[in-house]
Write a structure and sequence with these properties.
Elements: H1 5-10, H2 13-17, H3 24-32, H4 39-42, H5 50-55, E1 68-71, E2 74-77, E3 81-84, E4 87-93, E5 102-104, H6 108-128
Antiparallel strand pairs: 1-2, 3-4, 3-5
Length: 131
């Protein structure tokens, strides 16, 4: 029997009780924790163990590990780094790059829109004499 989280969202309490390895109490826990958004949510239900889920064809999906960079022997996560828009070949800690020139690692396109908006706001403030 091959099931997924959508099946547990759609099935009635009585139908869930008929699934091999799932009793009335576990079925009640499943119904109370609906809606499930992924197969990993089923692993949070009390009474549904890895063995039962494996028999039903449900495997836990591991999240990919974040990218880490080593600087001077210390590991830092990817979100500590950004590119400098003035010289995109340079990647450094984001706090060393002025905010209006940061292009965040992995979010280059969104960063370009943000930096353009920040420069626009700064130019407005300078024109109004606020800076």
């Amino acid at each position: 029997m091959k099931l997924n989280y959508k099946d547990f969202n759609e099935k009635a309490y009585n139908q869930i009780c008929k699934i091999p390895g799932i009793g009335k109490k576990t079925a009640k826990n499943i119904v109370s924790m609906r809606p499930f958004k992924s197969n990993n949510d089923l692993f949070k239900v009390k009474g549904l163990g890895r063995g039962i889920l494996k028999k039903l064809g449900i495997e836990k999906v591991k999240k990919p590990r974040k990218t880490w960079f080593t600087v001077d022997g210390v590991d830092y996560p990817h979100y500590c780094f950004a590119y400098d828009e003035r010289n995109p070949a340079i990647m450094d800690f984001f706090w060393r790059i002025p905010r209006e020139y940061r292009l965040y690692y992995g979010k280059i396109e969104e960063s370009k829109k943000l930096t353009a908006r920040l420069r626009e706001i700064s130019a407005d403030k300078i024109a109004k004499g606020l800076l």
